[in-house]
Amino acid sequence: MASLVIFLPLLAIMYFFMIRPQQKQLAEQRETLASLEVGDEVLTSSGIYGVITEFDGPTLFLEVADGVEIKATRESVSSIISYDESDDDGDDDVEAEIEHEGPIS
Description:
alpha+beta; 5-stranded antiparallel sheet; 5 strands; 40% helix; disordered C terminus
């Protein structure tokens, strides 16, 4: 009986720290895949950035460069890329960062 009293709280802790967050993450991924639209910029699980140009059932076509399209599955999309509208050109920040670096020691 004493082992049952210890075992039940451990199961509850395991559920709240391991199983429940994983289920939430899977639900969010399913929701993301369902909300994909033509024109969305996405990142695939293999690290390829592209813009969705067309859907064909469970597959989609990504434009990865001007005039270059690849075919991928919906499940390969890991996230939708969104940019901060207040930052017009991110290169200014990079250039400022490079200008302020000192010599390599």
